[in-house]
Amino acid sequence: MNNSFNSGNVPKENTAIYKDLRLSIQSWVAPSVLVITSPTVTKLFQKMSTTTGNSFTDILNQYVNDKRESYYELNELKLNFITLQHLEPASFTQSITDTSTSVDAMATDEYCSNFKIRTKQDVPYFHKVCQDPTPWFEKYRHHYLKSCHSPELETFSHPIAVMLIVSSEDSNPIGLLVKMFDSAKPPAIFQQYNADANIPKIYILVHPENSEVESERRLSEMKNTFGATNSYLLRISPKEDDGGLTYEPSTANNSNPLYTIVSDLTMKHIPNFIEKSILELNDTIVANKKSFFSKMKLRIGYKKNEDEATSAVSVESCQRRLSDLYFLLQDYENALSNYKTLLKEFSAEKTPNHYAATYEMIGICNFMLNKETESQFETAINNYTRSGLNAASVRAAMIQGEILKRKSSYKLLADLYKSIAEREIDPFCAAVLLEQAGFCLLQYPAPSFRKACMRLVLAGDKYAEASKRKHALRCYGFSYGVYEGRDWNYIDDHLHLALVRYSFFQGHTSDSILFVNKLLEKNCQSFQSQNSIIREFLFISKSTAKDNYIGELPLPLINNDRTQVFLSDYSTELNQLVWQEMEEAFKKEASIITKPVLQGFDLWRKDQFQEAEKERTIVVEEPITVECEIRNPLQVPLQFNRVHLVATFKNSQTQEEESNMSPLDDDALAAMDNGQTPFKVESIDLLLGPSETKKLVLSIIPLKQGQLIIKGLGLCMCGSVWGKRQFNLKQKRLNKTRQQRESVVYEPNLTLTFSVTSPMPRLETQFIEFPAALSHGEMKQAKLQLKNCSNKMGLKNVRVRLSHPTLCCFGSNNNDASILSTLDSSILLNIELPPGATVTVPLWVRGLVVGRYNLRCLVYYESEAGNSDLKYRLARCQTDFDVKASLRISTFSQQSSTNLNNYLLGIEVDNPIIGGGGDVFYLKQISSISQHWKITPLSYKEDVPNNSILTLHPGQFTNLFFGISPTAEQQQNVNQQQQQQQQLAITNISFDKNEPMYDSSSFPVFQFLEYEKMSHHDYFQGALSMGGAAPGGSGGHNSNHMTASNVGTANSNIQSSRESLSLKSPISSEFTLGEHQNLLDLMLFWESVPSSPSQKLVPTTSSTTAPTSTTLANTIATIPSTGGKPTPRMGVLNATSISFLPTHFNDTTLATPWGSWRNTTSPTGKSLMYVDPSLRFQAPLRHQLQSPLSIQHDFQKNSICTTPLKLQLSNCSPTHTLQLCIDTLLPHENLDVTSQLTSQYFWTGITRYNIELAPLQSQELPLSVCFLRAGTYNINRYKINIKINNSEFSKDIYSTVQHLIDVEDSE
Questions:
Q1: Which cellular component, as a GO term, is one annotated location (predicted)?
Q2: Residue 1013 to residue 1035: CA distance in whole angstroms
Q3: Residue of 1134, 877, 1125, 1174 lying closest to 1005 (CA atoms)
């Protein structure tokens, strides 16, 4: 049906009437003219209006609305041209639908572009930038008022004139006009609504200009039949749109063919009819008004006949029609008076519909007269609701809403619109009212923020119900900004699902997918809901995706923190720093400067010189492996096909970019296999169950030089939609400059960015025959295999760096050994590998400290051809092994009481039960290494120790004692010693006369000792750098030559041979901590057979006649096979840097107390030192009395026995000078202040000496002692006051060793 209120017929300049409610009411309450056309006229205008689609009724409405002149003194009086269909009840529903369509053109995607409300504090700014968020509401209200009619309650829609239109081409125009409308038998709709059929009739003959019919003759017949004043001829032009009847303001009024017809209608026919109707209605009302007597008869009980009853009803209808006519004439005072009179005839209980309609008009009249109106509209709305006339209640609510808005009663207005919207009304109308209710709550001085957003969500639901997707998307999008991130699951799911659907319907595919991602992140929906969401997402994506590829997929979820990259030249274990430290050390050795050396004022700006992360370099045709963890957060299983890595590649020469962000179909796979792409990827298929997590390992192989950036995972979801999941690795926030600190700036994460360079050789490394377990001190041989996997290029400059450098020695003997100079340096292997070659490097491994080891080996190598982008490459391998406990060594030393230059060394060897390995150990040999000292056995003289002493079962221990005496070189002058090259004195003492003696200076025994000393040195240096003192002294040795002394025990005389041996030693002069000489290193050789304690290891080089020399490496290499039985094990325990001389008290690195001290090697292999804390002062002085042990004297002849003595003094320090004051004690002087005893002897002669001892100087002082009778005397009664280097501090020391003399009477 053609509606007379089509939005296309309302020009833009009339939009001002939408905002003025008075004009909207006047447009609604306008005289209605019924238009009835013959079928010929209808078809004729359909042909002429192909572009506009207007009927003759639409043309008349447009002409009247466009004209600006008034035909009589009324404000903006217009006419409403209607058809019979307009009076039907079904026409209202269509009118409402057309009204909602008329405002679609004004709908926007957002209320305010580039701004979203998130908190209550954003509301004032929103009102500032968006003063009218819903400009379409006034237009909708205007058309709703104009379209909403209730013919049974009001007469505004009752026609007051009828236009009968026929064509000159009709066969019988006169007869057709008579039949079209007969006042005696009007259409049924007139009788249904009790409309007046006696209305003016206008007869129009339409004559096309190209018609050959005589129009004047037929017009004359019409005038003779219907009257000249009611008959008109309308000439039209079929060649023009709408027949040339459209109103044009630029032309004269009388030039339009409709001018005469409309002018006569508005100036003659309608005013005359209204005036006549008012007079007739007034007479009818007066004539039928009930008298006082007739009302009393009804109360007494007289019956009223049917004619009277009909007359009473007609009186009420006449009263309503009269009131409506006064309102049409804009006589609001008379209209109000008549409406109030009519109201008395109705009651809210019996006729709530008429009661509500009358109250509504009373309120409208008061509004037009600027009087109070609220109570009338509230009553009208309530009674409309009781009557079920919800459409009429909406009309009343819209009028009352405008009144409340002018009073700024926004809270009441919001409640009014909400209550009306909850009734059974048109969904679009309910959505508009809910939308207005939401913004009214925001206009309140204390805005109800969350309630307003909920109103908008409900408005979005109603818009969706009315199929207004753009309006719904706008409401949902506005509310989403408020509810986002609040973890309100139900509203989140509702909004996300709605935004997914309507974003897709509006063509915003990327937004739709984004909301799907957020919808599924929470995983709080049921199984059925998630299954429905996935199906809907797949349908949406497949319907809109170009080439079946949609870009970012919502699933699966990627755990970016678990994403790792595996390369052959870079660290793969991101959570461990061991590989990275070793790589950085190789960078320094390769002279690759990554950080500037800062000096001066640059130190204050050091944060600006921090090294930025760089992309890593990889080689063409070598794979990059990415390990990632993906998860299905849903309760439904998901199938993913052809999961692969997606990347972008930039050619280094042409700067062209390529990517594989497209479906990986069969054609793409074929192109990849043929080398048509810059890189190659592998793909896998997988099924992720509900809430299942899987770890993927995928690889990508670059085929050209350039820049490769891995973006994420490409996959096909559920076999229907292709897309990708992007890696979002964590970025480091920049905080160097002030601008960066004031803003949020992140450094690009280049973990997945690679520079692809030209081909280079690739080295593969692995350990071979590496032991799975070792005992503490045990040594075994292993191998490191190096393989050049390149068939085109060789490699050179092979270097090795270990995570535990003290555990391994590379080489098989002294000739091919590769020795570490320092523990933080690498080992250079004299190896060059041609293409495809493989080499095996021998190495020795020794258990040092008990524990579990993960030995990492990093191999550095360079290409023979060279590469400017990649100077070197790194290969790595690793192995795990255990070090178990074996023996524990404790050493203790003390000054000898018989010789000033000798010391006592005690060794306790323990096979512990707790922490031990439970094996039986055999002691084979002990060796000492020192620069100035050697050891000799004291526990035995004539033969080797008993086997029971040398065999240690679990829980047993043994003690061995040795004497420490100086070598010949120590007796030389200090100046001569500084000029000579330093040598090491090595003493080897074998415990088995039938077995060869092991050379402790051989490889790798001596190298492991030096490595262990280096490790101790680094530990002591670390303790000092932390502000602590080292637990003991460590000596330095710069020895390129050594002197070996092999001590055999086959006979009573110790046989020693000394010779100068050349040995590769890593110890440099920088390793020296001090210049004192009280250092001694011990090596204890042992063997063990776990399964058979009685089994002895018999080397093939053994000799039964005389001890020979061999190396421990040769012995281990020649151990025979035991046929599946446990293999005998051999090892060496080291006790390094044993101190036995006092040193300068102020030298913290060498401070060792005077007296008894002890060094211990614990079962775990850690070196411990015990010192007596009560010994505070330490001086490098040794002193000793020399005298006969017994004296014969005749006291009868001479009562006093005088005996000469010598006091030997020696300065042990090679650097410090000692100032000494020696005093003998008087008889009454006591060493202990609490003692009351006096001595039985006294000193004579010189009793005080003041001397100075140069470094390493010795001196003898003569003393004399007198005895008065025979007996045994302890003559240690003297004190020495010591100063070092003439310092102010001095200390008195006393002899703590008894010196006994037996005096006998010779009588």
A1: TRAPPIII protein complex
A2: 9
A3: 1134
Interior angle at CA 511, CA 507 and CA 516, nearest 5: 115
| Sequential DSSP letters for 456-477 | HHHHHHHHHHTT-HHHHHHHHH
CB count, 10 Å around CB of 974?
14
Spatial separation of the C-alpha atoms in residues 1296 and 1276, rounded to whole Å? 8
Is 818 a residue whose pLDDT tops 80? yes
Distance between CA atoms of residues 998 and 929, nearest Å: 14
Token pair in block for residue 87: 């009076």
Sheet holding 1271-1274, edge to edge: 1190-1193, 1300-1305, 1271-1274
Distance, CA of 945 to CA of 924 (rounded, Å): 11
Start-to-end CA distance of the chain, whole Å, equals 164
Buried residues in 683-711 as b, exposed as e (16+ CB within 10 A): beeeebeeebeeebebebebbbbbbbbbb
- The backbone torsions φ and ψ at residue 19, rounded to the nearest 5 degrees and listed phi first, read -80, -20
The label of the residue with tokens 């393989």 reads 787
Contact (CB, 8 A) for 696 and 682: no
Cα 278 vs. chain centroid, distance in angstroms?
82
CA distances from 71 to 250, 270, 331 (A): 20, 11, 17
456, 434 Cβ separation under 8 angstroms = yes
Do 383 and 348 contact (CB within 8 A), yes or no? Answer: yes
What does the pLDDT read at residue 1109?
Answer: 67
What's the predicted TM-score (pTM) here? 0.57
Q: Report the alpha-carbon distance of residue 773 to residue 119 in Å, rounded.
A: 66
* Fold match, 289-407 / 1181-1305: no
Give the number of C-alpha atoms closer than 13 A to the C-alpha of residue 7, restricted to the C-beta side.
20
Q: Give me the sign of the Cα torsion angle 343, 349, 350, 351.
A: positive
757's CB contacts (< 8 A; 6+ apart) are: 617, 618, 619, 620, 705, 867, 869, 870
CB of 1221 within 8 A of CB of 1248?
A: yes
pLDDT, tens digit, 9 for 90 and up, residues 328-384: 888 889 889 998 888 888 887 888 888 888 999 999 999 988 888 778 888 899 999
Architecture of domain 763-881: Sandwich (2.60)
Of 2.60.40, 2.60.120, 3.10.450, 1.10.287, the CATH number of 557-568+622-757 is 2.60.40
Q: What is the largest CA-CA distance in the chain?
A: 198
Backbone phi, psi, residue 992, to 5°: -135, 115
Amino acid at 1216: H
Q: In whole angstroms, give the CA distance from residue 888 to residue 921.
A: 11
* DSSP SS3 for 453: helix
For 533-677, strand residue ranges (E) read 549-552, 557-566, 616-619, 624-631, 638-651, 657-659
The Cα angle at residue 450 between residues 449 and 455, in degrees rounded to 5: 100
* DSSP conformation class of 833: B
Dihedral angle computed from the Cα positions of residues 485, 486, 491 and 497, in that order, rounded to the nearest 10 degrees: 10
Fold that domain 289-407 belongs to in CATH: 1.25.40
List pLDDT tens digits, range 40-97. 888 888 877 666 667 777 777 777 765 544 444 455 567 888 888 887 777 777 777 7
Nearest to 947 by CA among 1052, 1093, 1056, 1090: 1093
Query: Which residue type is seen at 983?
Result: Q
CATH classification code of 1181-1305: 2.60.40.10
Handedness of CA 278, 279, 282, 287 (dihedral sign): negative
Q: Which residue has the tokens 């000793």?
A: 1184
Measure the CA–CA gap between 652 and 462, rounded to whole angstroms: 57
